[in-house]
Amino acid sequence: MKLETKNLTKEYTQDERIFGALKDVNFSMASGDFISITGRSGSGKSTLLNILAGLTLPTSGSVLLDGEDIFALSDEALSFYRNATVGCLPQQSSVLTNLTVLDNVRLPFHLAKREGDSEKEARRLLSMVGLKKLTGRMPKRLSGGQLKRVAIARAMINRPGFLLADEPTSDLDAQTTEEIIQIFRKVADEGTAVVMVTHELETTEYAGQRYEMAHGVLRKI
User: Fold this and answer.
1) pLDDT digits (tens, 9 = 90+) for 100-128
2) Distance CA 184, CA 33 (A)
3) Which structural domains are found in the chain, ordered by start?
């Protein structure tokens, strides 16, 4: 499975001025890749992730999944792409406080019709991220690092081809950061491509490919 962009551009208009968030970005990733993208705040990193996730429409250019433009898909097909093909790990916590750890992880599985045992898969993923014994716990009783692990497990519940992580370690201590990056490495080794946007340069040493974004321009480093 391959996801790529062709001359991807995103512009916003603010106070009658055009602001270029992305400028002719050409980028690709395939199964098993672990990619880091660094850059200052406002450089366009999160915009790129949102477009790859099918959440933001580009001004021009395309996002191709195995050669097919995702923004040419029907609304139903694009919704399924967001649910099944990409797993998203947003910068801010998105764990639902009124659901247990287990039910938080299971939730995306039930947003589309599919076969399988969501509980069994959720328990497998929670074991992978080190939360095997916390399945019944409520989020308010979890640490920041544990919440991040729940979010990773939930993003992986539908076995996506791509995991998009936006500043996943920005609020974590050094030891927890290393543990989270090791989880990403394991995810990539098992075949899911991982794209990690970060401003923490020390986390990029685990990535197989490294990119830098500045003023909407992406370059390989």
Assistant:
1) 999 999 999 998 888 889 999 999 999 99
2) 10
3) 2-220 (3.40.50.300)
